[in-house]
Amino acid sequence: MNPSGKAAPGMLRALSSQNRLASQVLAAHKAFLFACLAAATLLSGCGVLNNYPPAPSTVDTVDHRYRIGPLDTLSISVWRNPDLSATVSVRPDGRISSPLVEDLMAAGRSPVDLARDIEKTLAKFIREPVVTVVVGGFQGIYPEQIRIVGEAAKPQSVPYRQQMTLLDVMIAAGGLTDFADGNGAVLVRGAEGGKQYSVRLKDLLKRGDISANVAVKPGDIVIVPQSLF
Known about the structure:
Blueprint: H1 9-44, E1 73-78, E2 86-89, E3 95-98, E4 101-105, H2 111-122, E5 131-136, E6 146-150, E7 156-158, H3 166-172, E8 185-189, E9 195-199, H4 201-205, E10 221-224
Parallel strand pairs: 6-10
Antiparallel strand pairs: 1-2, 1-5, 3-4, 6-7, 8-9, 8-10
């Protein structure tokens, strides 16, 4: 500042340059926030319905034959041979071990098929074994489990059951969170090469619109996005 009390021209130019820089930074910050909001809107759906076709309300009713999966609990009963009977868990590698039977592959087999396999092994030690296998603690094989991810109250995998519907799946998942965009949810159908369908979970769960309930298939994935509003 000069003796007359006025700012020197150099100082004025410096202040003007700082003001312009601050304005540019503020503008860039606003642009960044806008871009983030736009990206989040695209990712979350922001309460807007997606463009996928609606999921069909029914599917082909093919009898589903349960296949044993890792972590299933099996009750193996050998008729007239209680010492050979046992309750075992299927290991993560899909195999089981029971009296006189070691490292037998169980995952992917039906209970009846597994019983026949055990009989073949036991036939080396006892005459004409008769085996029954009963499954408890159902998990099923991974490709047939139905997965619920995103803004479900309890994201998880659930074993498929005959004639299962979307309502059954969401009950198992505990419904939706307060932040879910239920009507923006997507059903990915693995049996159809990953084809995607729209489902109306909000209408189904919050409004009781049973017309929004649809059948599910083994291997389906339900994705529930988050809503920003």
